[in-house]
């Protein structure tokens, strides 16, 4: 009888696989971090502090992550058109750098990780980032690569991994993945993507424009996404059916899909870009083109609608705004620390770049609600999807800015003018995406001769 009044013992968090298949996971107060791991505690303001392994002590409003430094090994496909040729990457999470106020890997955990960061999911994210860099010409890996070209590629890859994810590349070697690739599965997954996108697009076009009352809105719990205390809920990319005033969201979705999904989720799976399973246990990322589907397809089969399209749209918008809120100040701080080459023009462009990033951060901090065009005026679902797509475009510009930071850190004085022009393009995309996200409706464009 007395057992009814006894306090139930909290079930311990499963830390199995940490250091092998699992890089990091979220812990609750009272959990015990395994030996040789590191605990990172974030307060309500997003500031992090690292502690040694042991019992986790969290105050009210704090959250804790535990990670193992590794090393870890992933197989990457640098060119989606040649999945049989890959790179075997081995990386580690370094100890804290005392010269910086916030570790980049800590920011990555807080901003992009949802619950558990699996090695396979992290590999998919790195693979998409590498493919984007090669497609844009930021990294060069030509056929019959010479030793000098390989060293230049490795230097750029190492800096990209450290600036973007906060991890250090220990080794990178070419590898033949021909025996691990299932081409039939890759083609089947692509067909499922297109079919799922068309199905969800048709469903969204039939969605009534009227929104539920504010007290019953599904978006009510996530409208204040930029707040640092928002939980890292797993999110899938919203469907590519949001098209308004002649815009084709499918075209933008091909560019924003990789950045829209979280790297890991609470159950250890990933909602990142669709992948085709390899017999060897790896995953080949299928990067969609401009006309392909934007909705994420699980590795095990076709898409199942876990939530209404409006809810997924609101969730992806909240996650993207949260990333922009957390990472834009950190990016500006890193850009301020760059050693500039001599000359007034470069200095002026650098100051203008910092000013534009600061204004973009202010724009994010004051972003209006997704579901309302004005007080007591709910916004149609199709306009909400258009707004969320613009947020993802701004998030893609944020990822490009981190990649540009890695190039600026290695750039010679002669390369700075060209890279600053690239920064101007990235800032323009960021500003455009945020401006259209703020607009409730697309401005009417009169035809001209």
Basic shape? globular
The span between the termini is: 86 Å
Low-confidence stretches: 207-259, 266-305
> How are the strands ordered across the major sheet?
3-2-4-1-7
Average pLDDT level: 74
Secondary structure: number of strands = 12
- Radius of gyration equals 22 Å
Proportion in β-strands: 5-15%
- Largest sheet, strands/sense/barrel: 5 strands, antiparallel
Judged by helices, strands and strand pairing, the structural class is alpha+beta
Helical amount among residues, as a percent range? Answer: 40-55%
Number of helices: 9
Order of helices and strands: EEEEEEHEHHEHHEEHHEEHH
Provide the descriptors you would attach to this structure in a database record.
449 residues; alpha+beta; 41% helix; globular; 3-stranded antiparallel β-sheet; 5-stranded antiparallel β-sheet; 12 strands; 9 helices
Could you explain how this protein is built, in words?
By secondary structure, the chain is an alpha+beta fold. It contains 9 helices and 12 strands. The protein has a 5-stranded antiparallel beta sheet. It has a 3-stranded antiparallel beta sheet with strand order 5-6-8.
Topology summary:
Elements: E1 22-27, E2 38-42, E3 48-52, E4 63-67, E5 72-76, E6 85-92, H1 104-112, E7 116-118, H2 119-136, H3 147-164, E8 168-176, H4 183-205, H5 249-260, E9 275-277, E10 283-285, H6 309-336, H7 344-365, E11 372-374, E12 377-378, H8 381-410, H9 416-438
Antiparallel strand pairs: 1-4, 1-7, 2-3, 2-4, 5-6, 6-8, 9-10, 11-12
